[in-house]
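Reopening this ticket.

The earlier resolution said the output was attached, but the attachment link was broken on my side. Pasting everything inline this time so it's all in one place.
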Amino acid sequence: MAPNLDNSGTAFLVVSMAGLSTAIGAAVVFEPRMVKLASKPVLAAGLGFSGGVMMYVSFAEIFPESRTLFEEHGLDEAMAYFWATFCVFAGMLLLR
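Inline output:
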């Protein structure tokens, strides 16, 4: 069966926008007025926001997928939930 490429244009646009936003963010360091905005409170707010986004992605999207995959490999619902939770916190400890 051939893959469905109906959304390939949208996917390419989203990936291009993500790449452009990274390039624009990297170019900001060459503008002296923008560098002056990078005070400790601004950086702390930005890092806090990005950390919150990553936690949301982990718990709202990746965690249910992990639990589902554990269930597909033969674990009952309680053990799948346990191992998915264990893996999330083990990953946090590894990154610490």
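Reporter confirms the inline version is readable. The two ends are 44 Å apart (CA to CA). The chain has a mean pLDDT of 86.
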